[in-house]
User: Fold histidine kinase from Natronolimnohabitans innermongolicus JCM 12255.
Amino acid sequence: MSKNATSSDVAGESVTLETGLEAFQSSPEFSGPVEGLDGHDCNDHFAHIYETREEKFEAAVPFVRHGLERGERIAYVVDQSTETEVRSTLRAAGIDVPAAVGSGALVFYTVDETYLRDGSFDPHEMIQFYADATAEATEEFEALRLVAEMSWIRDDGTTIEQLMEYESKINELFDHEDVLAICQYDRDLFDPELIQDVIRTHPHLIYDGAACHNFYYTPPEELFGDDAPVHENERMLRTLRERTTAKAELQARERFLKELYDVTADSDQSFEETVRRLLELGSERFGLEIGYFARTTTDETVEIVEAVGDHDRIATSVTDTLRDTYCEKLLAAPGRIAVTDAAEADWTADRAYEQFGLDAYFATTVHVSGAEYGTLCFASERPREEPYTETERTYLDLMGQWIESELERQQRETFLQESYQITADPTLTFETKLERLLDFGREWMGLEAAGVTHLPAWDDRFRNEFTIGYGDDADDESDVMWTDPGEGCFCREVIESDDPVGMADVRATEWEDDPIHREHGLSCYLGTKVMNGSTPYGTLWVGSTEPRDREFTDTERTFLELMGQWVSYEIEREHREQALEESNARLEQFAYAASHDLQEPLRMVSSYLRLIESQYGDALDGDGEEFLEFAVDGADRMREMIDGLLAYSRVETRGDPFEPVDLETVLEDVRQDLQLQIEDTNAEITAATLPRVKGDDNQLRQVVQNLLENAITYSGDSAPRIRIDANRRKQKWVISVRDNGIGIEPEEQDRIFDIFDRLHNREEYEGTGLGLALCQRIVERHDGEIWVESEPGNGSTFSFTLPAVADRD
Ligand code: ADP
Assistant:
């Protein structure tokens, strides 16, 4: 059969299901608790009682699909429906019918070929038919699965007794063979008596979309014979009682759940208060007057976190040694202890009994993130009469689980908070943060050591870059500990995996041969990959020389991964900064070379030009004078550019520390420097009251000066009208310089900030194309931005942001 054709369309069906029953459990069309009957393994024979055609196929389709998916043969006996009808229904449900029929996985039979093959119904013959068909099917397929329409019974002379005898025989046969079946009964077609018998003889019934655990099922021995009525009465009475008890249990459970919810859902309440209320509730419900939640610590003591009831040794905040306590008993076999009478449990000779005198004890262990945390206990100084019910057990477990999940949540929060406090501290260096983080991590997981390794690209050997808690002097071990990772497991496995890799106990695994274990004794280990951008950098790990008695939990893995991500991020940042610094250093070197090495020959050119001018000036004709002027001019311009470049390259490295700067004063100074230009061009400069900002006084002066100079220079024909404004935006000031000049084409507005980029030639406007590049670099050093808004012919507005001065400055 074709698996592809059938597996894709119905959600919730799985190919790993074991019995026919599970086809219904997992089918979205069905509901109801489907369980095997006590004492009857026969889950393989269903009666389906239906009223409509849709209902009939609602059960048959998932049953067939499931069988095909499991590689079984389906024998479909049609009577009421035609084969064509069944085929098209199966096809409409997405089953590849031609493929299934072609491979022999789906076979259609008529009633005349099966039930009535000898002309009338013969139970023995039919059982034989099943046995043969199953034998044949299982040669090639996993099992035989039968869907049978039972409508034929109506017209046949078959008696009810015959049929029922036959059905109960089937149960027997199906118990031992690889065969399962649905017999379909149309309720409208049959007498109520027959339907009643169908109900009695099938351990499982499908009715109205539910696969039912059939408590009306009557085993064959009860159905026939002289004792039948006695058996039946007893079964009915038992069922009655069971159902009533089940209902009462269910109600009790519901009430408990509601109470539990009420107590735990109050978010204003502290953890201790909630625990206290839980203890009160449990103590009342279980009829045990003492309740306590205790925390056990590694040094074999118990601390009672909260307690209710009146007992001189069991009270809130009391600390005791674990020895000879009831908790010790519980922790020796983690899970739940339910003792109603200490004497019956043979506890009365124990020291714990002597000390505490508790006769009833009902308790569960509490684990947090997989590690033992403590115990939740209820107890009484008197024995309890009744055994603990299932509901009470569930209730105790639920209380324990609530405490566990709450503590886990707290733990997660603390972890995140503490690690955040370390990593976000601006006063710490990366090394100190890393050390504290690793220290925190190993302690949190109860391990000795932690570290970061690096796998440099050039020699493919891991190096211990940073280690704590491992060996006396961690530094000494750098470079020597890690060998060729091709051999080892620890680092190699981690670097090759996207998820953290953990080994709680390396003994008896292939890790045991790793030199890191053999020579350095590391016996338990959890590591995560550290990346530098997209290249693997190394590993972040925690571990111990002692093996660990429990696996690493998901929480621990997640936290290590988070730490790894932080380290990756920092390493990447450091590398980026390093790269930037290097490029800055190169630029500055170049500028240094430019200023010193180029300025010298340039000076020579200039002085010789002046010499020519003074000594041979008279000998030059008009052209000669003009050429000389060009040469002098070129040399001047070159000096300007070199000076500008030098200033540009030094913005980061030679800037002054930031201090409060009064922009009013800055503007005043700039006005004075530009006085000549202002007068020459008749420029009018107005300004709003300017704020104090935080920055480098000299650099800010350069920015304002450049912008004003540009505003004057690119003013066009009319006299420059310039307006300076300042607007507060949260922690920043936006300073803008607006002019009424020539403006800038939109597509040019970005490139004017590039170094040496100009929109005009020197004949039109003087300039080096460095001014705005310098402004941008200065503003960026101040953590700000600079931009221009402009309409050609309609002036430009240059704006930039600067950090505001904090109020206390
Ligand atoms: P320059 O030394 O050429 O002025 P800048 O970096 O200061 O160099 O400016 C780059 C280019 O941006 C200028 O050449 C000019 O074309 C254009 N520009 C700068 N400021 C203005 C302005 N206020 N109005 C119009 N264009 C401007």
